[in-house]
Amino acid sequence: MKHKWLMLIIFMALVLALPQGSWARVQGACSDCHTMHNSQNGATIYANGPYRALTKGDCVGCHTGTNSGSNNIPYVLDNSQPNYGTFGISGNTLAGGNFYWVKNGDDTTGHNVEGIANVDQNIGMTPPGWNSGFNANGQIAPNGWDHQLTCAGVYGCHGKHEEVDDFADIRGAHHADDSTIDGSTVGTSFRFLYGIKGIEDSDWEYQPTSTEHNQYYAVNRTDVSSMPSDTATINYLCAECHGDFHSGTGVSYTGSGSPWLRHPSDFALSSASGAGYTDYPGPFGTKGTYWPGAPLGSDLTGGVLSTVTFSGTDDIVLCISCHRAHGSPYADLLRWDYNNCKASSGNGSECGCFACHTNKY
Question: Which pTM does this prediction carry?
Answer without folding.
Answer: 0.88
